[in-house]
Amino acid sequence: MEFFEVIAKRHSVRKFEDRPVEREVIDAVLNAAQTAPSSKNCRSTAFMVIEDRDTIAAISEMRDFGSAFVRNAPAVVVVMGDETKTDLWVDNCAISATFVQLAATAMDLGSCWVHVNGRPRSREDASLGDAETYLKNLLGVKDGMRILCVIALGYPLEETAE
């Protein structure tokens, strides 16, 4: 797919076919994302791929708004930044996350970004804490790593006109 076709085709996809994404396709997406520029070439961004259905279901519960659709994604990419390498980890992660989504589109996958950093778990109940802490505990993310977003990945479910 030509670059400007990828740009034109990319859109948020929240409904996915019930089939796994091949590992070589995920690897190609991540390889592309690892070429994203970073501040002073510090390479502060890291990725965690989740394919386990139960873990994906738990990820979908990180917020009581805007993340429920993740439950039906066959794969999730957690985009993290190492805050010990740079104070620009958010910027680096955002660039890398964009590369994930563009590469996914080029591989005929659908994707949707769900923001994590700075987002509460609940709009109504502050005692539930924030989405990032929930995910760090769920996924065992090491100290110094911060989560910017998760990206749901999968083959887009074709909408049928009735």
Provide a short characterization of the protein structure.
This protein has 162 residues and is α+β, with helices and mostly antiparallel strands.
Walk me through the structure.
The protein has 162 residues and is of the alpha+beta class. The protein has helices spanning 3-9, 23-33, 53-59, 89-106, 131-139, and strands at 45-50, 75-82, 110-115, 145-154. It has a single domain, classed as NADH Oxidase (3-Layer(aba) Sandwich). Strands 1-2-4-3 form a 4-stranded antiparallel beta sheet, sandwiched between helices. The chain is globular.
**Helix/strand/pairing category:** alpha+beta
* Ends distance: 30 Å
User: How much beta, percentage-wise?
Assistant: 15-25%
Q: What global shape is seen?
A: globular
- The radius of gyration over CA amounts to 16 Å
Mean pLDDT: 94
